[in-house]
Amino acid sequence: MMLKMKTSTKKIIKLSIVKSFIFCMIMVAIDYAQGETFKMSKYLFLFPTYAIGIGLLDVYLLKKS
Questions:
Q1: What is the per-residue pLDDT for 21?
Q2: Model-level pTM?
Q3: Could you tell me which residues come within 8 angstroms of residue 27 by beta carbon, excluding any fewer than 6 positions away?
Q4: Looking at residue 5, what is its pLDDT?
Q5: Which of 2, 22, 60, 61 lies 20 to 30 Å (CA to CA) from residue 52?
Q6: Does any domain span residue 26?
Q7: Range of the domain at 28
Q8: What are phi and psi of 4, to 5 degrees?
Q9: Cβ atoms within 10 Å of 52's Cβ, excluding its own
Q10: How far apart are alpha carbons 33 and 24 in whole angstroms?
Q11: What pLDDT is recorded for position 16?
Q12: Mean pLDDT per 10-residue run, the chain (65 residues)?
């Protein structure tokens, strides 16, 4: 059974994932530039944490306006 979501909810989820991916790529580039080793566990933690945080912030700001 498919759950019906509003288009704004789908958009918030998609944008949160994209923003989180871009954030992680920037963090990888910074770590690479500083000569640090790549730690997959660090980015597996950062990606969902940042996505959830940004998603909640977007929902809050959308409801506030």
A1: 94
A2: 0.79
A3: 43, 46
A4: 67
A5: 2
A6: yes
A7: 17-64
A8: -90, 125
A9: 12
A10: 14
A11: 93
A12: 70 91 94 91 92 90 85
Which amino acid, 22?
A: I
Q: What is the pLDDT of residue 10?
A: 85
Cα gap 18→40, rounded to integer Å: 18
The verdict on residue 4 lying in a domain is no
Q: How many residues does the chain have?
A: 65
Specify if 39 maps to a domain.
yes
Distances (CA, A) of 4 to 1, 9, 25, 46: 9, 10, 32, 29
Q: Which residue has the tokens 């498919």?
A: 2
Q: Tokens 């958009």: give the residue.
A: 11
Domain count along the chain = 1
Amino acid at 3: L
DSSP code of residue 5: -
